[in-house]
Amino acid sequence: MNTRSIASLLLTTxxxxxAAGVASAQDKTVKIGALSDQSGLYADLGGPGSxxxxxxxxxxxxxxxxxxxxxxxxxxxxxxxxxxxAIARQWFDVEKxxxxxxxxxxxxxxxxNNVIKEKNGVYVNSGAAxxxxxxxxCSPNTVHxxxxxxxxxxxxxxxxxxxxxxxxxxxxxxxxxxxxxxRDTTAVVTxxxxxxxxxxxxxxxxxxxxxxxxQAQSSKAKIIGLANAGGDTTNTIKQAAEFGIGKxxxxxxALLLFLTDIKAIGLETAQGLSFTETFYWDMNDxxxxxxxxxxxxxxxNAPPTMVQAGVYAGVRHYLKALEAMGGNSxxxxxxxxxxxxxxxxxxxxxxxxxxxxxxxxxxxxxxEVKKPSESKGPWDFYKLVGTVPGxxxxxxxxxxxxxxxxx
Amino acid sequence: xxxxxxFQGTPKGPGAKSMQALYAQLxxxxxxxxxxxxxxxxxxxxxxxxxxxxxxxxxLYMMGAFVAYFLLNLGGINYWWALLLAPIIVxxxxxxxxxxxxxxxxxxDHLYGLLLTFGIALIVQGVFQNYFGSSGLPYxxxxxxxxxxxxxxxxxxxxxxxxxxxxxxVCLATWFLIEKTQLGANLRAATENPTLVxxxxxxxxxxxxxxxxxxxxxAALAGVLSAPINQVRPLMGxxxxxxxxxxxxxxxxxxxMGSIITGFALGVxxxxxxxxxxxxxxxxxxVLMVLVLLVKPTGLTGRAA
Amino acid sequence: MTTLTDDTLPVTxxxxxxxxxxxxxxxxLLAAVPFTGVYPFFVxxxxxxxxxxxxxxxxxxxxxxxxxxxxxxxxxxxxxxxHALKVWALPxxxxxxxxxxxxxxxxxxxxxxxxxxxxxxxxxxxxxxSQLLYFIYLQAPFxxxxxxxxxxxxxxxxGIFDLSKPxxxxxxxxxxxxxxxxxxxxxxxxxxxxxxxxxxENEPRAISLGYRTDQYKFLAFVLSGTLAGFAGALKVFxxxxxxxxxxxxxxxxxVVLMTLVGGLGTIFxxxxxxxxxIAMQQYLAGFGQWVTVIQGSIFVVCVLTFxxxxxxxxxxxxxxxx
Lengths: 407, 305, 322
Fold this sequence. Notes:
Radius of gyration of chain C: 19 Å
Largest interface: A-B, 49 and 49 residues
Oligomer: heterotrimer
Structural class of chain A: alpha/beta
Largest sheet of chain A: 5 strands, parallel
């Protein structure tokens, strides 16, 4: 073989590789998996609504018209970490999914986090509360949207202590999420000059809270902090009303409460509650317009919860990053880096950014539940009390234990 | 256990537990016990008469609460009528279940009844979840039972007081019906020896169907009673069913009085646990069950399995 | 009370030979999985549950003891293996041994407490014990509550086999499953197994023949619990996490379902049942909220129409024990 033929061979090889490189850069197929609780405790705040939100994000991105092919599939993790990881693994291995979104339930969310890191996918979590996703267990493949325990504790805790609620009693769900919420809130309360006078840990899914409420009542604390979620929170609130807790001068602070929870409790009982969310459908024209489109497609015409809104915003941002990169490289770390380098902006959360630890920073709002007389529609529930800018609401980078920050 | 004298006056947090607070916990426990009693009573009736471990009990309890909700919101029918109508409606549903499915399992191992009713529970819960979501619907306390009274050691919502008294009456009435009346005697005889009872001209299958309806109706009644206290949620019964099972086992499978007494007693013990070691309040029933079964292999009043 | 199993089928040397043939076919089919394009993780998961269901079936199908707390062995072994692998950094083979040992000790204790109870009371006391364990695992710091133990290293089996490679892991799990299955198969067809069946059929008669039935039942319980622990330890490598799900009572219920769907007291039934149930969880996921309804309907249909389970019905049709 002479030098010429070797040279031509090398050239062809190089060309082939280059062609392959170009092809992958221009690969415009994307597959997104919406992994959620489709039938259990969190199905109303995530579930089918989250899948819808992801679909709307794809439609609104307008990428289909630009030659992109974007598919969305959905799965039910049934709130079991091993089912969640099995689905995630299968999605990457068989379905060739690029990104997984939503994933409520902290236990499942953390388990899935490991799989996505291993498979170098993209993880846009909106449903889970654990601040570990962007802290101790942060990952270069993960972006955590919408909320976390730190933010909930800080926003609600600070506002209530400043408003004079300086003695606290906690009703805490006896699992890691509840403990984290209580721990973070206690820190805020004490650093603002308040005092925690007591607390009680209750098992998950307790049907009756009267025992605990009696203990809270006799503690004479000004604020009863509910470090629990879902059915536990709604039952506590309902039964607190029954035991006349509001009338005795004590105030309930639900640390994690969703729009669907308020609907479930009813305004009559829920009125006056203060809590924090990062999205409410009735904030401005953009949120109203989006929520109307969303509600029209929902089975019970419910507007989006903040988790569903977070899925929408997260998918929009993910697609923006892909568009800016000119194609889907299927390389999760690179795509997430790109997502972090671009400021976030959308109709639902406004302007924000993604910190190096994967935490999305956007405004948090303190709401109060309206009186029945003030409510003008079936989902008109909230009164805006205060706005906390994102940089004050979420974990400061200096306090974060995320390994990504040490580079 | 702390002495009462140590903490007279205002308690200061969880460490300060007064005797007064203890009374309050006991009373609250008794209230919860009345739900356990009603539910386990229904289970015991069904087990005693049909030999079926009714896993669908929780789902039927949930249906009771939902029927009350629909009666109020669609038909404008109030709580008091719901107390009567919901058990009848759900009871009829139960009788249809018995006629179409459960009766085919006569004479088979318990396991099949358990599995079948478990399947039914999944279907019922799934359908409700599909249409009403998982977070639940509100149901207000009826006006006549709103408010509360100060008992000195605690604030007792009137509704809770009503729950205790009403369920106690229902429990005792059911016990009377089954243990002391001719109808009850026929029923018990029919399960002991169906052929013989049939020979006396009694329609045994119909009696069994009615019994199932009665047990299910009791579950639905508990559902209506709990609707104003708890959220009306599709999974409200799923969380409860295992505890209620334990109550029935501790009381002795199939024993009517056993399950009533155990139901109330468990409520009280749970109340005490919520006071001294709240994290374990969902688990204490199982500790109790292990202890009871170690000492009395067939429950407190039960017969051999 | 009628028994749960189909007793009309004879166990003859010929039947055992037939069963061996079916076993070899099953083993070959499973060994071929990585070449077929079937997703191996799904099969691995199913294999772990199949082993669990077989262990459970040893107790209920042949011993007549319906445990409603078998999740405690699965979960305990899972947690202990996971802890050994992640915190103590033991190699895989030792990690598995730790899990098995934990399940063995647990089954000694729980067996001692529960074995003298009859019928439904036995089921209930095992349920109660497993609920107690659930509570302990919820509270114990080493399990990390509902977050579970995550990101468990898979390591190298015997220092040679790299378990992070799906194909290698698959064969390790398969060998584990087949070993466990063969052991159970051996036990069932041993004199010990015959005595167990005799006790199941008529305990007073077995006692009158001089058998100390409690000891036989106790041994069956310990074997079943320990093998269930083996399944739990294997599962750690597949799922790479250990969580409260594995100790929850609904997992115990799931094992009952698998065994029943496949065929109680049949040798291959639990394997088929496990595959059916795991496949349902996987492939019905697309139906979203209707999954529970579909599952419920399957159980109802199963109980009403083919009570012997998939394998049980087939065996009954061919009048062979399988």
